[in-house]
Amino acid sequence: MNKLASCFLQHGAPSAQSFKSFHVQRSPSLHSLERRSVSMPRSRTADHAATAANATIGPHANTQGADVTVVSGTSFDFERYLSAKARAVHDALDLALQGLPCPEVLSQSMRYSVLAGGKRVCPVVAIAACELVGGPVAAAVPVACAFEMIHTASLIHDDMPYMDDGALRLGRPSNHVAFGKPTALLAGDALLALAFEHVARGCAGAGVPADRALRAIVELGSAAGVGGIAAGQVADMASEGAPSGSVSLAALEYIHVHKMARLVEAAAVSGAVVGGGADGEVERIRRYAHFLGLLHQVVDDLLDVTGTPEQLGKMTGKDAAASKATYPRLMGMEGTRAYMGELLAKAEAELDGFDAARVAPLRHLARFMAYRQH
Length: 374
Hints:
Elements: H1 2-9, H2 44-56, E1 59-61, E2 67-71, E3 74-77, H3 78-96, H4 104-114, H5 121-132, H6 137-158, E4 168-169, E5 172-173, H7 175-179, H8 181-205, H9 210-224, H10 229-239, H11 249-274, H12 279-306, H13 309-312, H14 318-321, H15 327-349, H16 356-371
Antiparallel strand pairs: 1-2, 2-3, 4-5
Helix pairs in contact: 1-3, 2-15, 3-6, 4-8, 5-6, 5-11, 5-16, 6-8, 6-11, 8-9, 9-11, 10-11, 11-12, 12-15, 12-16, 15-16
Family: Belongs to the FPP/GGPP synthase family.
Pfam families: polyprenyl_synt
GO molecular function, one term: metal ion binding
């Protein structure tokens, strides 16, 4: 899984001080974005938070290029951590997709996309959140796999011609190009259903109490349906072709909070829940993951402008061609980078007070998400 780990670690992280920030006023509820009031005055608070974070978790390169972080005097090797978790999740997904009672072409289509790799943000967040509250990795792996199935299903559907019409995913033909549109559609549907079956069976097998497993299933369902991806995708498609300036920042955030941000949030919450986290811990992790997921999308929008197909493994410039609302289109490049700094500072602030060693993976993941180049 070194290739998978290198997907995260190919590029070093510059100083968080390079970001300027502005403040986005938010309603108390993370799910009430359509009522959000948004303004963009300069904020020194986020700059200060990012600077403080940089002082405590700066990357230290060695001659082998390994990414080792020092947190409160404790060494943490993010590459090794990521590689180990990615391998565990990959092996568990491979096992879950073996011997499926369905036609071989459907099984092949599902495996083609799920086992293709990628950043594995949701699985890593789920496992790291479980460990943060003192839970065992075994409790989080079924949850991690289920969220990766959901995420993969959403990508298969997003790439299809009647959605985002993407012919390339992770440097190879999208599922519908490789297997045909009907099979790809059904592969996405099958993964969606399998995710719920897998988390239910897996949690039971790992000895997770039934009430915790049920809470994780509720999070999974909300993130996949009307409280998440489905709602966000409909709003996203409705915004395509809208005249410049007609889609507000609040409307754009509604789209992305209900897509990637909600999925990352639910994965983190589910990991913390099955790990036995207290309610206060779970809610702080929820807020962290909300900002992390939104940060992921902001960077994606930026890379669609600045990246290349070779760099990203998918076609670029599609958002502009479809006249889609994006952060660079609404805020400009400088404003988008400033917002990245704001989100990074807010995500890391939610981790303050947790055990320094246990929180290191989530701190480092937030930093990577802000500075990634693919």
